[in-house]
Amino acid sequence: MTSPDDAADGAPDGLGPLDDRPGPALPLAPARAAALVAAALDRAARPARAPSRRRLMLVAAAVVAFASVAAATGLYLVLSDSQPTAGPARRPEEETRTEAQPRGPTAPRSGPDMPSVGPQARPTTIGPEPRDDSPAGPVAPHPADGIEPAAGSGPAATTPPATEVPPAPLAPDDEAPTRRPPAAAEDLLLRANRLRGERRWGDAERTYAEVLRAAPGSDAAYAAAVAAAALRLERLDRPRDALELYERALGERPHGVLAEEAAFGIAESKRALGDASGEAEALRRFLTDWPMALMADRARERLDELELTIGP
User: Fold this and answer.
1) Which of 4, 80, 246, 263 makes the best surface tag, with the fewest CB within 10 Å?
2) What pLDDT score was predicted for residue 80?
3) Does residue 8 fall inside a structural domain?
4) Residue 223 belongs to what domain range?
């Protein structure tokens, strides 16, 4: 008969005897097996145990310490960037000399080891000094130095008199620019045109005459002469005075902007005076100079009538 110890020695590794009896283990009772299964399931369903309070405190302390170190490092970097870079260390004697100097504005130091600084400072040069080749002689003191030159010490410096520039010669009369009519003549011309628009023929004609007297030979006078001649011929029944103004305007400016109106006005004035031959001659001259004018057809019709009456 085999003993329990012998059975244990012959069992595989990790499989010891289940009880102190030889042979296979007795089967568990159904109630015992159900209890074991329920206990295993209950242990598996339990949640994991929460970490201990001590462990949580250690983790929190580590986080706070790390954050403090990071903040201190960042503050150090910011302060080191904002501070100026320290210059080279000075020697003790330089610091003593600096502390001994009084504070406040002081005059610049001058001496053999330092060039003078100021308006009268001369640049420091290296090499032989340039020679002064200017001839020796008495130097006149500057008035600002407060020293008056002694009598007989030398000729006094005098300022040469300023050279007067003669005025530029005026241009000859033939090269002078054309004079513009005075403002009064232009104002009179505008006033005469306004009176003519108001059908005040007499006042308009007299105002045109004032323009002729105020600025003879000007553009305003040229326009006023033709306008006044038209009023005398068409509104005031003064053809002889109109003929005089027309001939005057055409004679002064034979190629002017109003030459066509003046030439045709001469023919109309002679017609009003009953001068048929003079009218025909004026019409022939008008058609020769302005064959394409607006009044050319009218001039041809009138010339045909005159030639039928008085002959060519």
Assistant:
1) 80
2) 64
3) no
4) 183-310
What does the pLDDT read at residue 73?
A: 72
Tokens read off for 289 = 């100079």
Half-sphere exposure at residue 312, Cβ-oriented, CA atoms within 13 angstroms: 0
Q: Mean pLDDT for each consecutive 10-residue tract of the chain (312 residues)?
A: 50 55 63 73 62 71 73 68 51 50 47 42 46 48 46 50 49 42 84 97 97 94 97 97 97 96 98 96 96 95 92 70
Query: Where would I find the H helices in the chain?
Result: 4-10, 30-45, 53-82, 92-100, 183-197, 201-214, 219-234, 239-252, 259-272, 276-289, 296-310
Name the domain count of the chain.
1
How far is residue 3's CA from residue 98's CA, in Å, rounded to a whole number? 108
Residue 239 placed within a domain: yes
**Degrees to nearest 5, angle at CA 263 with 258 and 266:** 125
Identify the bridge partners of residue 114 per DSSP, sorted by sequence position: 111
* Residue 192 in tokens: 């005469």
32-65 burial code (b ≥16 CB/10 A, e <16):
eeeeeeeeeeeeeeeeeeeeeeeeeeeeeeeeee
Geometric angle at alpha carbon 257, from 253 and 260, rounded to 5°: 85
Alpha-carbon span 256 to 218, nearest angstrom = 12
Report if residue 197 sits inside a domain. yes
pTM: 0.44
130: exposed, middle or buried (C-beta count within 10 Å: 0-12, 13-18, 19+)? exposed
242 domain residue, yes or no = yes
Length of the chain (residues): 312
Domain harbouring 209, CATH code: 1.25.40.10
